[in-house]
Specification:
With 181 residues, the chain is mainly α. Helices cover 61% and strands 6% of the residues.
């Protein structure tokens, strides 16, 4: 099977279900950004040695692939529900709470940086937040399952706390934002 089909050469792509839309369609932007996030998570995963964090990131990648498939489904066809359960959101919340307990209180704004893995977790956070914004915009036009919105929202929180946690575990100082004086 060839990877190229030439069917997208004119700027159109197919959704699951058969209809074709512009590659600039908000639906394509939504699942494309989720795919971009998944790629960055793979890079973060491969940069870490902490097995529990790696395992959670791998689970997140599977959930995001399912979300991408849901977003790529033709809204005129039968719905393709995402493989998301309440436990998936609870797992993120539990990880956030566990990491937060190990961290000093946040008393200032922080900048991404300090270690490559910290910066990469912040990249995941910002791409996740962009994905969430695009999915919300899509949801304002067409129905998107609520659990997709909830999962992306909680996932961006997870990456913020993970960035802090990775820095703390490595003994790196957080980079405090300082306004100009």
């Amino acid at each position: 099977m060839k990877i190229y089909t030439k069917t997208g050469d004119a700027g159109q792509t197919g959704l699951f279900g058969g209809s074709r839309v512009s590659k600039s369609h908000i639906r394509v932007e939504a699942y494309g950004t989720v795919d971009e996030l998944n790629a960055f998570i793979g890079l973060l995963h491969d940069s870490l040695s902490d097995e529990p964090v790696r395992e959670l990131l791998r689970q997140v990648q599977h959930r995001l692939f399912s979300i991408g498939a849901t977003l790529a489904a033709d809204p005129a066809g039968p719905p393709l529900p995402p493989d998301l359960k309440p436990e998936d959101i609870a797992l993120l919340e539990e990880a956030i709470d566990t990491m937060t307990q190990a961290l000093p209180p946040l008393r200032h704004f922080i900048l991404p940086g300090g270690l490559p893995t910290v910066s990469l977790a912040h990249v995941c956070r910002t791409v996740c937040r962009r994905a969430e914004r695009i999915v919300v915009a899509l949801h304002e036009q067409e129905t998107v399952p609520e659990e997709v919105l909830q999962y992306l929202n909680r996932l961006s929180d997870y990456f913020f706390v993970l960035a802090r946690y990775l820095g703390h575990q490595a003994g790196a100082d957080e980079i405090k934002w300082a306004p100009r004086t």
